[in-house]
Design brief:
By secondary structure, the protein is an all-alpha fold. The chain has 19 helices and no strands. Helix 4 runs parallel beside helix 14. The two termini are 28 Å apart.
Length: 365
């Protein structure tokens, strides 16, 4: 709680203003950046009762962030929006989702080399997944003191996917590779397989990586609501009202945690740089794996699809389609990219669980 206005307070007011500007004028993730920006203003008001015990933001923080409730509820909504049929019809895209997480672990090594404690290094590394709820969930458990900075960084880079990824795609691929057409004649996916998928994934991942069980379970539960076809109102509520309310409250709380004494540090610049590096490395790893598959299949797979192996669903898949059509307007790789993108969403959840398990085992938490 701030006791008086300081120069840092006014600087944070400016930061909040910039986030609000980006949300309104540039349409960068407005559902998150707008409440985060406004929450930043509220969090830096001196003597505000909202930030004190019993106040609105204090209660929301205790109820929804410290308990990890808001990110998990949002994951139910994300699951209700996802279609795993492109992935199920072409399982090779699961490998792209795995390759798209390699930058996370490279950044973990780099952050520890820069003398960040392991718990903070893991929280910074997960930014590379470009998955806001996963970043918030992991950092709230491992490094709550960095939660505001990490959340804003993750969602800011998520909004910048259409700006950051295309130059990397063009640099890492040739014109000929970007022109590769991929035939989309997927195998039909039986309704039983679509329904069984979230159940099997929940059990298998929950057993193999227990730390990721809350994330994978909520994601798969949302998908089961959708694919079952018997609870359309619940599915629609999860994807809309429930997610919107949780996103609204989460954004306000995250913004309120961005206070001058914790945000205005050199450490914040390191986090921004490391998060961007993790994002870039994940994209590069996905593209390199895509190039390998293009080579092994003798040009049947467009390497651009590998860039969608990060999370950022469905934005990254759409960016891949846009870049492919820059070279050839008749080139339609969207459904392939969505297969890799849904695999990346699963990969980011599993990577978050692996980091939680790794840190817990080393630090004895």
């Amino acid at each position: 709680m701030l006791e008086a206005l300081t120069p840092g307070s006014f600087l944070m007011f400016a930061v909040g203003g910039v986030l609000i500007y980006l949300a309104i004028a540039k349409d960068y993730e407005p559902a998150l950046l707008l409440p985060i920006g406004f929450g930043t203003l509220l969090g830096n008001l001196p003597l505000s009762p909202m930030n004190q015990p019993g106040g609105l933001l204090f209660i929301l923080n205790d109820f929804g962030v410290k308990t990890e409730l808001f990110p998990l509820v949002i994951f139910i909504g994300i699951g209700a929006l996802m279609d795993f049929r492109p992935l199920l019809s072409q399982p090779i895209f699961a490998l792209m989702g795995a390759a798209g997480q390699l930058g996370i672990f490279a950044t973990l090594i780099l952050a520890t080399a820069l003398h960040f404690p392991l718990n903070q290094a893991a929280s910074i590394a997960i930014i590379g997944a470009i998955d806001g709820p996963t970043s918030i969930y992991v950092s709230s458990l491992l490094a709550p003191e960095l939660l505001g900075t990490i959340a804003v960084t993750a969602y800011s880079y998520m909004s910048l996917v259409p700006i950051i990824q295309p130059p990397i795609m063009r640099l890492m691929t040739t014109k000929a590779e970007r022109r590769i057409h991929m035939e989309y004649a997927p195998r039909p996916v039986a309704r039983g397989a679509v329904i069984a998928f979230p159940l099997v994934v929940t059990v298998v991942v929950g057993i193999a990586v227990p730390a990721s069980a809350p994330l994978i379970a909520t994601l798969m539960f949302g998908n089961l609501l959708k694919e079952s076809g018997v609870v359309p109102r619940l599915s629609a509520s999860a994807a809309n009202e429930l997610t919107n309310i949780s996103t609204l409250f989460l954004g306000l709380v995250i913004g309120s945690l961005m206070q001058a004494d914790t945000f205005l540090r050199v450490q914040t610049l390191y986090i921004l740089a490391l998060g961007l590096g993790a994002f870039a490395l994940d994209t590069v790893a996905g593209l390199l794996f895509g190039k390998l598959l293009a080579l092994l299949t003798r040009g049947k797979i467009n390497p651009l699809v590998g860039a969608a192996g990060i999370s950022a669903f469905p934005m990254s898949g759409r960016v891949v389609q846009r870049v492919a059509q820059e070279e050839d307007f008749t080139n339609h790789v969207l459904m392939h990219a969505m297969g890799a993108n849904t695999a990346g969403q699963l990969g980011s959840v599993i990577a978050g669980g692996v980091l939680l398990a790794l840190v817990s085992s080393i630090l004895g938490r």
